[in-house]
Amino acid sequence: MDKLWPDLAGRLRVTAGGREHVLPLRVYFEDTDFSGLVYHASYVRWCERGRSDFLRLIGNDHKALLQGADGREPAAFVVRRMALEYLKPARIDDVLEVTTRVKELGAATLTLDQQIRRGDVVLFEAVVTVVLVSQSGRVLRLSRALREAMDR
Fold first, then answer.
1. 2, 7, 31, 33: which is the annotated catalytic residue?
2. What range defines the domain where residue 24 resides?
3. Is 2 a catalytic residue?
4. Residue 135: which CATH number?
5. Is residue 95 part of a domain?
6. 44/135: higher pLDDT
7. What does the mean pLDDT of the chain come to?
8. Within a domain: 4
9. Can you give the three-state secondary structure of the chain, one letter per residue?
10. pLDDT (0 to 100) of residue 6
């Protein structure tokens, strides 16, 4: 399926500020509230998609992580902290981009800077910290392979 739709997960690109992931999206009626503006939770949902696809494109296999591949305990990334800034509204049919960059890498945590833009206009900003947690609830260290993929 990925071969038929190569941009389904967005793309990685290198900018003057470093490497980032870009996920294009369109605002649909379901994303808006009664006023016709994008509902606040839609921005959070879009950032989740951006984070997931960023991790996927740098080599993190979500299914393998959940199944405990490589002899590790089954695990997943969970959100620990979010700081959100709603700057300008988006409206139905807007074409937006979710950008995701690594801000900080800890032993078991990953902090990401995310923005949602309409062209050059920043509509929303988020700083999100995720933690790798086993199914039993234990915090796990990030793998060397994942660290190296983020450093590239």
1. 33
2. 11-151
3. no
4. 3.10.129.10
5. yes
6. 44
7. 91
8. no
9. CCCCCCCCCCEEEEECCEEEEEEEEECCHHHECCCCEECHHHHHHHHHHHHHHHHHHCCCCHHHHHHCHHHCCCEEEEEEEEEEEECCCCECCCEEEEEEEEEEECCCEEEEEEEEEECCEEEEEEEEEEEEEECCCCECCCCHHHHHHHHC
10. 66
